[in-house]
Write a structure and sequence with these properties.
With about 130 residues, this protein is mainly beta. The chain contains 2 helices and 7 strands; from the N terminus they run ββββββαβα.
Amino acid sequence: MKRQLLAGIALFAGASFALAQQPLTVKLGPQDKSGESGTAKLTPEGDKTKVEISLKGAKGSQPAHVHMGSCSKLDPNPKYGLSNVEDGKSTTEIPVKLEDLVKEQTAINVHKSAEEAIFEIAARARKPG
């Protein structure tokens, strides 16, 4: 049975250094007909970044991560774990400056459930290329 990512992904790559000194809001778009969308607000907090996720259409508890890569080609291993999205909301501080985060191609990935996240990460790890 094929499992699918059910919430959005946003790329941070290409943001300017000046933008990295103030909060940055990125859109999270639906994937695999999830029906979920929203935003992630990234706020610089010294050597850390606060990540606030707000999703429409989300229910229950959903794991979230920052991955290296793009929407279509994520590194299967999360770079930074985020607090689970609980009924559409999550707030986490990650140990990286926002200015460093925007220099890399990274994406936020929200899964339908913990079981789906484990399956998806394992499937991506097995997928060639």
